[in-house]
Structures
1.
Amino acid sequence: MGWAGLSLLILGLCLAAEPLSPNAPHTQHRMDSDRPPDTLVFGQGGLLICGGEPRSCAPLALWRRGTPYRWLSLIDGERHLIARADGAPVFLLGTDALGRDLLARLLHGGRLSLTIGLLGAGLSVGLGLLLGGLAGHRGGWLDALMMRGVEVLLSIPTLYLLLTIRGAFGAALRPEDAWWVLVIALSGIGWAAQARVARGQARSLRAEPYVFAAAALGLSPTRIFFKHILPHALSLGLINLTLAVPAFIVAEVSLSFLGFGVQPPTPSWGNLLIDAADVARLGVAPWLLAPAVALALAMASLSLMGDWLRERLDG
């Protein structure tokens, strides 16, 4: 369960982006462009934060007032976990070419990418279980119609279909609207693969003795499905969910990296990787690789958690 803990830790840090970030993600500190990460050192006065040009140190201050924010667009606040006692800006992961705090952009961008992956995967798995399970349970024309639609959807290259859907809305799309477009597009395409798996399991489950017993007692096909078929398919759906989340996150990151996802200046892990793709820039500012490291950790933890869960449920 260590990987599950790491996944939850990454998600928790991203959800708490506002109080954990010393600065706002869009604020430009032009005098601190490409500034290296600040360091924490022990001095005579305790723990110090050192950074800047010329390099200066100040005592570490916790939970200080700073830039006002609205946490999760719900709660107003102005306190930040880490600050310098002298009031100078803190950049724990350095800054980009425009002087924006990379830690703030990493956490805010991670929250966007992770929530798109989680919600998109959840919707696709839920829709696939429902539609595929109903098709497999009822059979007949419903099964034939549903599977023909699934086959058509799966025959279209996913990346091209996503690019077409996103491109239809234009580049001048508000970040919150782009978020919903990506969630709906990913779940609207991803449910097909989930439905085919759910259909096969439903066809297997309807041959179980307890299903025949329920039908003999007079239960309607709909009640049999929701009471006996769907609950037994949920374990498979949970496994598919943990395996689908990394794929959906990578899809969002790929679209944003290509310029078809969330557009700058709103951060996502995808558009943050654009700077990391410039080898010449990495020679000057290697800390720009931080989003790639965070993405790799998230993908590894989610994938290994899915493998662990599959082994436990299969065993």
2.
Amino acid sequence: MQAIKRARILIVEDEAIVARDIAMQVQALGYEAVGIAANAEQALLLAAQERPNLVLMDVQLSGVVDGIAAAAAMRAQFSLPVVFLTAFAADEVLERAKLTEPFGYILKPFTERELSTTLAMALYKHEAETRLRNTTRQLKALSRRVLEVQELERRRVAVELHDELGQSLTAIKINLQLSQRLKDKALADINLENIHIVEDALRQVRRLATNLRPSMLDDLGLAAALQWVAEQSANRSGFLVTFHHIRGQSRLAPEIETACFRIVQEALTNIARHAQAKQVEIRLDRQDDHVILRITDDGCGFNLDEMRTRALAGDSIGVLGMQERGTLVGGELTIESEPGHGSTVQLRAPWRTFEESL
């Protein structure tokens, strides 16, 4: 509610006395009147400069462009919610006004209660629409990127199978064909070479399987898997990783363990690529009926608003993936960061054990 009370409102009214009175009412209700415009041109200019949260627009304005046309322009250029103020209730005016998708329509003279209710509902509706629009954009970007990543992963596995396992199997085939043409005394050496090739092929298969999903996540649980991925990341990237976790607790539900593991995996990948960190801390705790997973680094940090913009555009899909994993297990993922002060990724999810998921 506090966020709505601090909303910034632009007033578009060509009668100066009426405009000042409306501005006083708006401020009395706890909002901020960021400007008063007397015509459409001034309104569009102030909207571009002030970026208000809502516009109170008189239908009849001085000048060539009336309030309905000005509202349509604001909706198109700035996606601003508009509430019409008018003394006219004619059907043709209402029909034109509806085309601009207004968030309210107040007939003059109006009471303070009418103004308060209309503004609160309009701001709430606009906030809900904005969240829905951002969520839709995130889902589209995530779906597109999931398909791209899926194809890249398939290509990578196909190349490794062809180049590594394919070569090993080809070498064994050649040795088997060669053994048929050689004398018995060479068979021992050929068989030994075949054994070495098979052992190498098995290591390749295990590596591929581990990269796809480490078996210890299923066999030993989340803590062991997080310790393993932390050590692997530290060895590859050179930063120090410390891991703290609660001991003696029951295994978490498989979907929660998987979400936590993938979030840590993605966070460590991002830290290695961008953060220039020296120390990373991973914590897995329980608070009441929730599991709290926190990954903190002392790296260079980043601008959260810019990151969210990139994520919505599909350029930072790892963040969207982490958020989606958190949402799918009924949790919430938050990110805190600022340039020069490192970053923190935290997942708060319901504590659900393996037994409860059966």
3.
Amino acid sequence: MTLSEHVQPTGAVAGYRPERTLRLSVELRRQFKRRRTIGIFALMVALPLILIGALQLGGSEDAGDNARINLVDVATSSGLNFTLFVLFATTGFFLVVVFALCFGDSVASEAQWGSLRYTLATPVPRMRLLRQKWIAALVQSVGALLTLATVAVVAGGITFGFEDIQTPVGVTLDQREGLLRLVGMLGYLAVHLLVVGALAFWFSTITDAPLAAVGGAVFTMFVFAILDQVEQLGSIRDWFPTAQEYAWTDLLQTPVDSADLFRGVVQSLVYAAVFTALAFRHFARRDVTS
């Protein structure tokens, strides 16, 4: 057999198929076995239980004397109400960190360990490697969000009852309608939080320090959140990536006001697409052999 019979027209060894390298199932198994991922899911399970304990221990007659009705006031009305409270309490910080960690640690950690160049030498095409890591990070982060909501619904239902949703404005939503709207809220949150995930993923292709990628994304989102409080900026604030982070609460209205929801989804997808494109562009040119 001649040497030419071992080489494909593309120059690759006979039998080599780029699409068979680094299968998604393999990457998912690797990521879900990491202590970081196990720790995230453990926190997602523990947080609703901690909040239930806090609500139970903190219950008093003074708790109902608030002048303004909010999700905290109705958190103990039912398991679904408790779930809404958990989502409201975690949207601004906790879930931002989780998505940033899942995406920001994916590439930078392997670059730090020195295993990234060996993976590419397998050989795995660069764009395929980055795509698999992006999808794996998305599965992890969305899985963490769903875990948080599922534990909150079950644990909250056992503790506070599987009753209808009592909205802060006094409107009641039955169980079926409440669950459907909860699914919509989770979908919106996943899309909105994809912005910080994609930003962290871009930073992860730039630096070899996972902490810098995760911290940079979280810090950037916090800066925008602070600037969003500056009323002098006017309509400019509407274009910030944090502008519609609580638009999912509009799903509690009857009828639902979808204007902010639609704007939030479109704006988040645009931001996520831009940051993801920047990540792929930079990684395609990056020297990972040093």
